[in-house]
Amino acid sequence: MFEPQPTLELLFEQLGLDASEEAIDQFIKTHQLPADVALHQADFWTTGQRQFLESHWEKDDDWAIVVDELNQQLHVDSSPEV
């Protein structure tokens, strides 16, 4: 069976979140994390969401690329300016 390549939209669907472009943009804008908070440690995730993110990050599978993308986008405000 063919499994689609994970995307940010599919990740949001897997997490049970609205996966529309507008909703993803809004989520990223309103859920910025400090540099010292790991993505899976953010207090806005449910236990299931947290486990999904952490397990795929640790497995370093196809989902890990998209999880890393979300991680980077949620840490934009805490990134040092170049």
| Biggest beta sheet summary | none
Unreliable sequence segments: none
State the separation between the terminal residues, measured CA to CA: 44 Å
Quaternary structure: single chain
Which fold does the CATH topology refer to? Answer: Arc Repressor Mutant, subunit A
What count of helical segments does DSSP give? 4
Helix content: 40-55%
Proper CATH architecture: Orthogonal Bundle
The CATH class designation is Mainly Alpha
User: Rg, please?
Assistant: 13 Å
Give the overall pLDDT as a whole number.
91
H and E string: HHHH
Dominant shape = globular
Kindly report the name of the CATH homologous superfamily. Answer: Uncharacterised protein PF10982, DUF2789
Tally of distinct domains: 1
Secondary structure tally: strands: 0
Which structural class do the helices and strands define? Answer: mainly alpha
Protein name: DUF2789 domain-containing protein
